[in-house]
Amino acid sequence: MALLDEDSGEEIGTVRVGQPIVFKLRATAHRAISNLVLGCMIRDRTGHVVWGTNTWHTHQSLTSLEPGDDVEFLLRTRCNLGPGSYSLTHALTVGHHHAFGNYEWIDNNLVFDVVNVDRTYFIGTTHLDAAFEIKRSTEWTRQTASP
Questions:
Q1: How far is CA 28 from CA 51, 66, 97, in A?
Q2: Which of 92, 98, 99, 144 is buried deepest, with most CB atoms within 10 A?
Q3: DSSP letter for each residue of the chain
Q4: Quick check: pTM over 0.70?
């Protein structure tokens, strides 16, 4: 598992809020696999899940892998996480849920930090593209007054 800067392709350990990134995982089938699903989950430093999905939900399950087949998974996203430390857990499973059978499950396989260097200050685990709209009472009066 590796975390890459999407623009340069270089491996990184610290990410800027809003930075385009790629999580990359390579796997090799050691036996015939009829169905393969990759699941990913990001946790904050306290272990709370802040995001997760899998390739079954995105309609990208792989079928009919043969022994020796190599697969590269690339998960591209813009890092809209808040400043802090996070970990990525991944699982290679048979179906839509890990309870149906696991080929591999690695908790905290990748640990990375997020820093805010060029966004407005905010707290929490998510950077929302939000903006305040502020009106003074005199503007309400002007907008609602009849001509």
A1: 26, 9, 21
A2: 92
A3: -EEEETTT--B-SEEETT-EEEEEEEEE-SS-EEEEEEEEEEEETTS-EEEEEETTTTT--EEEE-TT-EEEEEEEEE--BPSEEEEEEEEEESSSSGGG-EEEEEEEEEEEEEE-SSS----SSB----------HHHHHHHHS--
A4: yes
* Residue 103 main-chain phi, psi, to 5 deg: -90, -35
Asked whether the predicted pLDDT for residue 143 surpasses 80, the reply is: no
Written as six digits, the tokens of 129 are: 């593209």
- What ranges do the domains of the chain cover? 2-144
Query: pLDDT tens for residues 85-126?
Result: 999 999 999 977 766 788 999 999 999 999 999 999 999 999
**Domain 2-144 = CATH 2.70.50.60:** yes
CB 73 within 8 A of CB 60: no
**What's the pLDDT score for residue 95?**
79
